[in-house]
Design a protein that fits this description.
By secondary structure, the protein is mostly helical. Helix content is 80%, strand content 0%. It has one domain. The two termini are 22 Å apart. 16% of the residues are buried.
Length: 158
């Protein structure tokens, strides 16, 4: 099975990436077109938002959490699918041959998806800044580096 994937090279990653992107994009489209993220009884917040008078805390108290979480999950899936072919290409090109696995590229694409979804959530709260985004990205990169070190240590021990 591994030889078949090696011969196909980039194609499986592209197919899975496109499929994940389509699932995420269709999810986001369905949520945006069919659900209301704020309690309908609080239409005064919509007016205040249009005039720029709404506070983020009052919007979050009136938010429908399930819709927002589904929206963020759709963003996570779509971005993961979008980044998966790029992550696989970079791993094939620059990663060592012995440590390359299918799930490494998927995990790295998922880190990017988590980062984008988290930054989207921070922007919804009006608390996103360049420093916070870079700090969260640095933490996620450190997690991936530690996982890579652990994997290489396992390879050495075998």
């Amino acid at each position: 099975m591994e030889r078949i994937v090696d011969r196909l090279g980039f194609l499986p990653f592209l197919i899975v990436g496109v499929a994940l992107f389509l699932v995420g994009a269709l999810t986001i489209n369905h949520i945006v077109n069919n659900f209301w993220p704020i309690d309908v009884g609080r239409l005064d917040l919509i007016r205040d938002t249009a005039f720029g008078d709404a506070e983020a805390t009052s919007l979050l108290r009136a938010a429908n959490i399930e819709v927002i979480l589904a929206f963020l999950a759709g963003i996570w899936i779509a971005v993961t699918g979008l980044v998966l072919p790029l992550a696989s290409f970079l791993n094939m090109r620059f990663g060592p041959e012995s440590s390359y696995h299918w799930f490494v590229a998927l995990r790295q694409a998922m880190w990017v998806g988590i980062w984008v979804a988290f930054c989207t959530w921070l922007q919804m709260n009006r608390s996103l800044g360049i420093g916070v985004a870079l700090l969260v990205a640095a933490v996620l990169v450190m997690f991936e580096i530690l996982l890579q070190i652990r994997f290489r240590a396992e390879q050495i021990m075998e």
